Amino acid sequence: MRSWGLPDGATQYGMDRDRFAALTADPAVRSELVESKKEGVRNHVVSTPTLFVNGRMYSTELDAETVIDVLQEEFARVTGAAGN
User: Fold this and answer.
1) 3 to 10, 52, 69, 79: CA distances (angstroms)
2) For the residues of the chain, what is the DSSP string, one character each?
3) Residues 6+ apart with CB under 8 A from 37
4) Threshold 0.85, pTM exceeds
5) Rounded Cα–Cα distance for residues 37 and 11 (Å)
6) Backbone angles phi, psi at 51, to 5 degrees
7) 82 Cβ partners below 8 Å, 6+ apart?
């Protein structure tokens, strides 16, 4: 199975190369990754991270402040409450 250099690339993000390679070779992990990919394709996800709130997709820089803003706006939309 071809790894496309992912184990080496994982080290750039502080992951242990050998542990990463072992996990991605595990059939159960690979199956979960494939299912996650299929779900992303079904939902038209084109980048990560992507957040869905009440069926609305947000694909942008998702720092804590942005997520809080999205949740507050959605709460206001759903409840009719004025936002802060």
Assistant:
1) 11, 30, 38, 47
2) ---TTHHHHHGGGT--HHHHHHHHHSHHHHHHHHHHHHHHHHTT--SSS-EEETTEEE-S---HHHHHHHHHHHHHHHH-PPP-
3) none
4) no
5) 22
6) -120, 135
7) 76
pLDDT tens-digit profile, the chain (84 residues): 455 567 777 888 888 988 988 888 899 998 998 999 999 999 999 988 898 998 889 887 788 998 999 999 999 999 987 655
Nearest C-alpha neighbor of 3 from the set 69, 54, 20, 14: 20
